[in-house]
Every structure is written in structure tokens, then in C-alpha cells.
Design brief:
Blueprint (H helix, E strand, L loop, with lengths): L3 E6 L2 H6 L1 E3 L15 E5 L2 E5 L6 E3 L13 E6 L5 E5 L2
Parallel strand pairs: 3-7
Antiparallel strand pairs: 1-6, 2-5, 3-4, 6-7
Length: about 90
């Protein structure tokens, strides 16, 4: 099965403000702007959405270490959910 993945290294602004920017090349793998979708990480399910600036906002409940230079992978699953994991 083919999975679509997006890997992003966080900038200072992303880490400080708790979001992951989706670049234009990968934008099509995600739902339309402002449409909620399920993001699975650390064995938990979260509801989130992408804003008009192509940012996925992560609340502190995600339990990830959002630091500048941290690398995250988001995978689009076959059931239209998304998995997220921290690579470093």
C-alpha cells in the first residue's frame, strides 16, 4: 500500500507558536482549508484543521516536543486519517 508522507523540520516560529506549516508541494495531501480531520499521534486521536496560511495547529495536549529543528513526519493513512510522529 502506498502512503503519502510529509516531513517537516520546525522553524523557530512554528515551535514557539505550536504549528506545523504545510508547504505548497504537499498541500494537496491534506483536506481543504478549515475542514476538520483526525491526526493520530502518541496513541491518541486529535481533531485539527489547516488554516488559510497552511498551518496545522497543535495544542499542548499533543505531547510533542516542539523545538526549533525538531523533525516531524505526517502520513496520510488509507482511511483518510493522518498519523504524526516526531523523528528527532
Amino acid at each position: 500500500m502506498n502512503y503519502v508522507t510529509y516531513v517537516r523540520t520546525l522553524t523557530y516560529s512554528e515551535a514557539k507558536r505550536n504549528f506545523i506549516r504545510v508547504d505548497a508541494e504537499h498541500r494537496k495531501m491534506f483536506p481543504p482549508i478549515m475542514q476538520h480531520f483526525t491526526l493520530i499521534g502518541n496513541y491518541k486521536r486529535y481533531q485539527t484543521k489547516i488554516d488559510r496560511q497552511s498551518r496545522i495547529w497543535l495544542t499542548k495536549s499533543y505531547e510533542f516536543k516542539l523545538k526549533q529543528g525538531a523533525k516531524f513526519e505526517i502520513i496520510k493513512n488509507a482511511n483518510d486519517t493522518y498519523s504524526i510522529r516526531q523523528l528527532e
